[in-house]
Design goal:
23-stranded mixed beta sheet, 369 residues, 2 helices
């Protein structure tokens, strides 16, 4: 089953984009949206909790340009640098695509590691439909996924690969997880009550240059289970498309030195929907790769009970292959390395299973006791 259907009519003119002759398509409302296969339809997502404040900017779709090899690239003028959503032509099959074609359409690289290849192939076999966002929302800056300080602030729980001696050790983080279920919370009367789940690169040893992608719950005026991506220090971009609780989510964040820049591949495997984004950047920190459940300070964390991060892969290998750190979420300013008591744990994680799987458990919702 697939959901959400968007409509597009187009008028065209020829322009030069990034040195290539392309067809510029001006978007208006109309029939069926251009997608990798078929347009999608679906129900409206539940609105996120009210209570977070901050500047919010609506980023409409700025343009759409036909690619010489087929497909369409959509531009959004996000702060810092434009973001591009690259949608392959109908009938595109990532399983048989060349490495060059995968890169052209901002798909994750095909792994050579057999176990990682099996996971990639399963996810790519479900990359069938792209719903073209008419706009994104950037902001809600009072509740944002954040970078981690050197001792790891109490807003994070999960696992991270860490090689402080090598700023280019990690260039790809691939996360597969079950979208959490949002249960009734004792903190419901004290919003915001939020949860971000994501995979990312950087942000720990540099205090910036964090590239991350995943899903978000409890953001003011946004649907729950909404897909987002971010490159710190810019605000997160919420794409206006969302998962359902219990869906299998696949996210991949890659640093591309030839561009230079990042790709953010977001996929709802259960719904067969995907969004391949890219943005340029000269900044890169590859000394860490993270797989995180987050409630940014001073937000309360939602009651999700338990959730499984099924696969945490770094450079197509299990995170357990690398030096790694377990991170737990504690109340207030109590961080993982300096906490005084386990009784103030908000979210803890299990040890790694098969070097790449862990379970997160929520204990307390409140930011502070």
């Amino acid at each position: 089953m697939y959901r959400r259907k968007r409509t597009i009519l187009a008028s065209a003119s020829v322009v030069c984009l990034a040195g290539l002759l392309v067809l510029l398509v001006t978007i208006t409302t109309g029939a069926t949206g251009a997608t990798g296969a078929t347009g999608a339809t679906g129900a409206t997502g539940a609105t996120g909790a009210t209570g977070a404040t901050g500047t919010t900017t609506d980023i409409p779709q700025a343009s759409a340009s036909a690619l010489s090899g087929g497909g369409t690239v959509y531009r959004y003028n996000t702060p810092g640098a434009p973001t591009y959503l690259t949608v392959p032509p109908a009938g595109f099959n990532p399983l048989t695509a060349t490495a060059q074609q995968l890169a052209e359409y901002n798909f994750p690289r095909r792994p050579t590691n057999p176990s990682a290849l099996a996971l990639w192939s399963e996810a790519m076999s479900h990359a069938k439909h792209t719903v073209i966002p008419k706009h994104m929302t950037v902001g809600n800056s009072a509740v944002q996924p954040t970078n981690c300080d050197p001792t790891c602030q109490s807003g994070w729980a999960g696992w991270m690969a860490d090689d402080a001696s090598d700023s280019s050790a990690f260039n790809e983080a691939t996360g597969i997880y079950t979208e959490p279920t949002r249960y009734d919370s004792a903190c419901a009367s004290d919003p915001p009550v939020v949860l971000f789940v994501w995979a990312g690169i950087g942000g720990v040893n540099t205090q910036s240059n964090l590239a991350q992608a995943g899903t978000a719950d409890g953001i003011t005026n946004e649907p729950n289970h909404e897909f987002f991506f971010r490159f710190l220090p810019e605000d997160a971009a919420y794409i206006g498309e969302y998962a359902d609780a219990g869906d299998e989510i696949y996210v991949d964040v890659q640093w591309e030195p030839s561009t230079p820049g990042y790709t953010f591949f977001l996929e709802d495997v259960t719904q067969d929907e995907f969004w391949p984004f890219a943005r340029s950047s000269e900044s890169y920190d590859g000394s860490t790769a993270e797989f995180i459940y987050e409630a940014p300070a001073p937000s309360n964390v939602e009651n999700f009970k338990t959730d499984t991060y099924v696969d945490a892969l770094v450079n197509s290998n299990p995170i357990g292959y690398y030096q790694n750190d377990e991170v737990a979420m504690y109340m207030g300013d109590d961080d993982y390395y300096n906490h005084t008591s386990d009784t103030d744990a908000r979210v803890t994680v299990s040890s790694l299973s098969s070097e790449e799987t862990f379970t997160a458990t929520q204990h307390h919702c409140q930011w502070d006791s």
